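This part of the workshop introduces the protein records we will be handling. An example says more than a description, so a record of this kind follows.
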Amino acid sequence: MSELELDIKTADELFDETRTQEVYDLLLKHKDLQNAEIEWRLARACRVLAEECDDADAKKRLTYEALEHAKLALDLDDKNYASHKWYAIGLSIVGDYEGNKAKLENSKIMKDHFERAIELNPTDPTSRYLLGLWCFTFADMNWFTKNMAAALFATPPSSSYEEALSHFQEAEKLEPNFFSKNHLMLGTTLFKQKKREEAKVWLSKAVNENPLKTKDDKKAKEEAEELLKRL
């Protein structure tokens, strides 16, 4: 095994242990190799570091750095499913700084890349979850955002709770209990469909059955607890 292969393997093990800063530091030394496997992992590390960061300036810098690494990964290897997935994620997270108009303008691009990621690797549950989240977002748009979308597109992006649910269910089928937010979104989507008892099952899983390893996990638990109070 080469040094590069060993470092990638080590980086994945560190990531699973939520030692994300160590992942970033380890992979950054290979930056000049122009390697897609390094770049999408750097994008992933930057995104998690940004999520965990309390300093607003550092958070913004890491968010844009995530997109830069993901864009380079895609330029280097557009047959790599993870490059497509992380490029779409990168577009989504910088949208938090650029506003609803930019998010909407990038939305169709994001969907294309999530679908391409699934096409290249149909067994990845995270890509399915993310496509489900995209569908849920457009099914759940408020009046203002719908009107903005109508002004920007001849045919505005649209979806349904049914379509979102199918992706969350498929993600769970591919890898049960892989992500606390998938439990949350299964419960939330069923709640929107007024399927209260089914919603309770998944929201309870989000509260009780997931280790709280990241801010995403903690946020999913808090949101699920709040929604359960309404059932």
About this structure: The two ends are 53 Å apart (CA to CA). The chain has a mean pLDDT of 92. The chain has eleven helices and no strands. The longest helix spans residues 81-120.
